[in-house]
Design brief:
Layout (H helix, E strand, L loop, with lengths): L1 E7 L6 H10 L6 E5 L11 H7 L3 H11 L3 E6 L8 H10 L11 E7 L7 H10 L6 E8 L2 H4 E2 L4 E2 L2 H12 L3
Parallel strand pairs: 1-2, 1-3, 3-4, 4-5
Antiparallel strand pairs: 6-7
Helix pairs in contact: 3-4
């Protein structure tokens, strides 16, 4: 199984990227491809920019990465209760190619933050909207207080309950 993992964050030190990569690698014998959305940075979407640029190749390249996988693991950073501007912008450009951005792929949706809410607001948005964009959600987990539940030295979730939830979500991809 080919899994595409990425954080919906442009932070170079993204805890959401750490969570997405950790979770994707829970599925044994899977081939995990990790993306950085910074590699797909585009001008701020507007109708004027769309008329000027058409459908940018970087957005097509991102969609091609989705097409080449069997499943997606994405972890959403939360900015003011919503998606990061970087992810929302990339998503808007990708949607020019068609509404089915997620192309029917099985998905595990995650979110985390350093606080106790675990970015639940953005995860709820993603859970509610992904099916409209052809995402087949197999699990959705918010991880609170990331730094208290993740050991950066070992790259492991330390909380056994959270670890079990993440494993179950990944097993649902099968």
């Amino acid at each position: 199984m080919k899994i595409l993992a990425f954080a919906a964050s442009s932070s170079t030190k993204s805890i959401n990227k750490k969570l997405a990569v950790y979770t994707a690698n829970l599925l044994k014998n899977a081939e995990v491809k990790v993306l950085d959305i910074n590699d797909y940075e585009l001008p701020l979407y507007s109708e004027d920019k769309q008329q000027e640029l058409g459908k940018p190749q970087l957005a097509r390249d991102f969609l091609d990465k989705i097409a080449a996988c069997d499943a997606i693991v994405v972890s959403y950073a939360e900015h003011n209760g919503s998606y990061t501007a970087a992810f929302k912008n990339l998503f808007d450009w990708c949607s020019l190619f068609g509404k089915e951005v997620y192309q029917g792929k099985k998905m595990v949706l995650l979110s985390t933050s350093t606080g106790p809410s675990g970015a639940k607001s953005v995860l709820e948005l993603a859970v509610n909207s992904s099916p409209f964009f052809a995402g087949d959600i197999k699990g959705a987990i918010s991880v609170p207080s990331f730094n208290e539940n993740f050991d950066s030295d070992t790259g492991e979730i330390t909380n056994p309950d959270i670890k079990a939830q993440l494993q179950e979500a990944m097993d649902n991809l099968l």
